[in-house]
Design brief:
About 40% of the residues lie in helices and about 10% in strands. It has about 450 residues and is of the alpha/beta class. The strands form four sheets. A four-stranded parallel β-sheet has the order 6-5-8-9, with helices on both faces. Strand 8 (about 185-190), helix 8 and strand 9 form a beta-alpha-beta unit. Helix 15 (about 360-375) packs across helix 16 (about 390-395). The radius of gyration is 30 Å and the shape is elongated. The termini are far apart.
Amino acid sequence: MEVFHSVFLDEEKCKGCTHCIRRCPTEAIRVKGGKARIDEERCTDCGECIRTCPNHAKYAQTDSLEALQEFRYTIALPAPAFYAQFKFTIPLGKVLNGLLRLGFNEVFEVARGAEILAAEIVRFLQRRDLVLPVISSACPAVVRLVEVKFPSLLDNLLPLDSPLGVAAKIARLGALKKGYRPEEVGVFFITPCPAKVTEARQSGKGLGRIDGAISMASIYARLVSELHLVEDIPDLQIAGFKGIGWARSGGEQESLGEGEYMAVDGIHNVISVFEKIEVGELKGVVYCEAQACVGGCVGGVLAVQNPFIAKVNVNHLMKKYSVFRPWSEEEMETWRRAGVFARERVYEAKEVMKLDRDFQKAMEKYQRIEHLLERLPGLDCGACGSPTCRALAEDVVQGKAEEIDCPFLLRDNMLELAKEIYALASKVPQTMSGKRREDIGGSNSGPCATS
């Protein structure tokens, strides 16, 4: 399956500063020839490089509102974090009506999809054959992280679709029920991060197809200037506190009710927790909510509001919209039969972190890496273009770099070379050395002897 990525590099802006290589959680970036290079097989689209780059050389490729023109009937799927971009005193019915003013025919809240999904997760967690802890599938960057860096945890991933996928399917089912043909319906997500752009691109061609992902920042800029012209339509907003809370870290586990649940946010914190899961330290945890961005989706790189202020807005909105509107069991069964909760893309282990598929060769490469590490300075300075000395050693063994890419090894090699050159320069041919005759087998006395 072809892998699409939403994070791209603007080479004109890249100065090869190496900031990004230090933050990438899968060591997917190298600096070569003064420019960053992204390894697509390792990239998770988490957005850390976008957040870190001081030159704004990384960006997320998203869709524009002009894409709506391709469809007869369009549906906006605003992320729960979208609400947090506005002051909590602004009614959500006004924000959603603003999206209609921008050109959408309908809005369906991903927050509503989240609270419906939460009910299905609770049902799933009642099974006896679970591999614990079950890891949430809501954050696509985390799912990709497991596939790339923690393939041993694939069986821990929740085998249900994300809130975005669930919302897209329910919204499309509603449009089809109104009489529109599948090709006439365009479903667009208002996204806080590049990883969800990638999720939208990989949503397939079926019921869960998402036709575009529009940056939250671009929509906000358009909407905020026209909000004073928009009326509040309370009936547009149906999601309650359970769904809105998914905008921030901890909201997902709260929507599941009481249980042995935990929440972790920030991609590097997630890695630390997953390392503990791998060695069996968290078997007492039933469910692990994990989000790549610090603070959860409110911390996405395409959000405009300060994530801490956004989190406060979410907490206020959860109190303001505390009414939970249930759905019927008949609706739930209809959604199950339609495959609303089923994942269309199966989890797949990526073997990009393996040294070699052949175990013997992998062991030989490992030993070469360890030997090379003894000669490298261990400073992890990044001057070689790799994030760490170990990463450089792996690159050398894999034929992707040379030892002399390390400036310290280069200096040592040059010193050795200089010593050899000096030693050679110190040697003088015997015809020019002025050595005494006895040194070449003759006598130093007699008529030819010098005084």
